[in-house]
Write a structure and sequence with these properties.
This is Secreted protein. The chain is mainly α. It has helices at 9-15, 20-43. The termini are far apart.
Length: 74
């Protein structure tokens, strides 16, 4: 009787390949995010003077000065 062995670890690892369509999708997704980031950096902030409620100055508020009104209805 002849002894044969099945495919070993190397054959199994070589058989696992990422489909080209997945690589294309990941590339396009990355290009989309990089393009959106580049446009956002070029345009700048949408509303540079806009701040949260209760903040009037240019300096950011410290933790003790942050208003805690969240509209809970109480």
């Amino acid at each position: 009787m002849e002894q044969t062995t099945g495919p070993g670890y190397g054959a199994r690892a070589a058989g696992f390949a990422v489909p080209p369509a997945l690589w294309a999708f990941l590339f396009l997704l990355g290009a989309l995010f990089l393009g959106a980031y580049a446009v956002g950096q070029a345009v700048g902030p949408v509303a540079p003077g806009m701040h949260g409620p209760g903040i009037t100055g240019e300096a950011p508020a410290r933790d003790g000065e942050t208003p805690m009104e969240h509209g809970g209805g109480h």
